[in-house]
Design brief:
Structural class: alpha/beta
Strand content: 5-15%
Largest sheet: 6 strands, mixed
Number of helices: 5
Length: 266
Amino acid sequence: MLAPGLIARTLSEIRRDVATARSRDPAAQDVRPLEILATWPGVHALLAHRVAHALHNARVPLLPRVIAAVSRAITGIEIHPAAKVGNGFFVDHGMGVVIGETAEIGDDVTLYQGVTLGGTGFATGKRHPTVQDNVTIGSGAKLLGPITVGHGSKIGANSVVIHDVPPNSTVVGNPGHPVRIEGRRPEGPDADWVHLPDPIADAIKALAGRIEALEAAAEEPAPATGDQPAVRPLRPVAGTGAEPGEEAGQPGLRSNRSTGPNPAGG
């Protein structure tokens, strides 16, 4: 027989999960709580995981994995029974979400569809990410390995994160690059992915601007650096008998022919 305390705690968790869905999903703003409980796959997956996780911690064989498998088939969200999930966790849409065995998720974390909290290689022990509180992870993002995503961070859609993420930062790209948002803390489940910074695009833009400046400089005529020395043509001067290559009063290069009597008497 279930203890009254357990029933009260379960009902409290269900109410919190429904309230979380209403606060973070615009489509649930005007939906009744009972309808959210009946039709929201993220809520279903979380409730099933709580049961599977409790059975896993009690070392019940087989049943936790069966519950996780059934939940995956119904919701499209796969959460390993051993994964640790905090309060206020919400999966929006959820299809294709995978959360590995040693993953740890803090409070008030939001995941969108296609997110993977996965491992790398065949290492044992801690091999999945740790996501701290108030983190938002965009659609299709892949977080791989025993990394830590700091409090209040945001992971852009389709980012591939393989290194630790500092708190209150945003990660974009493949591989992911942590950046700041103009000093503004990315707190809460803000999904304004359109205005996320892109360091790779910024670097390409800077290189393109530099190339344009160099091309413009190359097309400009070179400035004069000073008076050039005059070049004096070499030509014979009339009346001096100078040969080409000579000027008046200057010896030139003469050919080896004699201009007078042969001193040898020839």
